[in-house]
Amino acid sequence: MIGWLSFFAALALFFATHFLPARGGLREALIGRLGRRGYFALYGGLSVAVLAWLVAAAGQAPHVQLWPHLPWQRWAPNLVMPVALFLVVVGIGLPYPHTLGGRRDRPFDPLYPGFAAVTRHPLLWALALWSGAHLLPNGDLAHVILFGSFLGLSLAGMRVFDARAMRAMSPDDARIAFRATALLSPLPLFSAIWRENNESALSVRLVIAIILWAVILWWHQTVIGVSPLPL
Fold first, then answer.
1. Selection from 127, 51, 39, 42 nearest residue 83 by Cα
2. Which residues pair with 140 in a beta bridge?
């Protein structure tokens, strides 16, 4: 019972730290007191600490098996994670301010949307891919709740950010911005002009993503305690 209490307490705190600051002007008040950098440094550290507690609590919760674990199921995260990590790398500093990780220090230019033309929510798609891929090899109740919650949060977050963008912009600006970006579309990848404008920057980020994937693959068993290899 204590294991379940710890897990649900961590889960509740995780969602509280992600939803409460946006309500009642709390985030704006803290930014005014701490500064933007100070606030996001504090918030980022708190989020990482709560996430670490949540992952550890899921591992310590009573094991209630919903489906058996089979070695081949590990292929899902192994095939998906390189894509998810690439989305993380391109999503940080995306030249579209109305999303998680997007740049807010300059206005969005619809003529040069960058990777936002493929998706304006790469970090949220990365979270969806990570959580969805990890559901298959983790068929116990605690991890299904954990990864299922992250999957639902990421998919719902796209609608929330799009709704905020529509409120923040005039109808004409919102229409232009949404026409220049996409929820998810591979079409820009086949455009010679788009590739010419973005190929250099994306190549660098692809290399960074591959390095991150190799590091995570190497340290996964040491940190998480489970081998990610489909053996």
1. 127
2. 65
Termini Cα distance of the chain: 33
What gap in Å lies between CA 116 and CA 183, rounded to an integer? 9
Strand partners, 65: 140
* Residue 224 or residue 86, greater confidence: 86
Residue found by looking up tokens 């005014």 in the block: 32
Mean pLDDT of the chain: 91
- Which pLDDT tens digit goes with each residue over 56-81? 899 899 999 999 988 899 999 999 99
Task: Please check the confidence at residue 26 and state whether its pLDDT lies above 80.
Answer: no
What does the alpha-carbon distance between residue 48 and residue 141 come to, in Å, rounded to a whole number?
23
What is the C-alpha separation between 126 and 129, in angstroms, rounded?
5
pLDDT of amino acid 104: 83
Residue type (1 letter), 124: L
The token pair at 57 is 């609590």
For the four alpha carbons of 133, 137, 140 and 142, in that order, the dihedral sign comes to negative
Q: Which helix (H) or strand (E) holds 222?
A: helix 192-224
Domain boundaries, the chain: 1-62, 65-224
d(CA 127, CA 219) in angstroms, rounded, equals 20
Burial profile 31-44: b = 16 or more Cβ within 10 angstroms, e = fewer:
beeeeeeebeeebe
pTM: 0.90
Q: Supply the pLDDT for residue 174.
A: 94
Task: Give the CA distances from residue 168 to residues 28, 32, 81, 110, 177, in Å, rounded to whole numbers and listed in that order.
Answer: 16, 20, 33, 16, 12
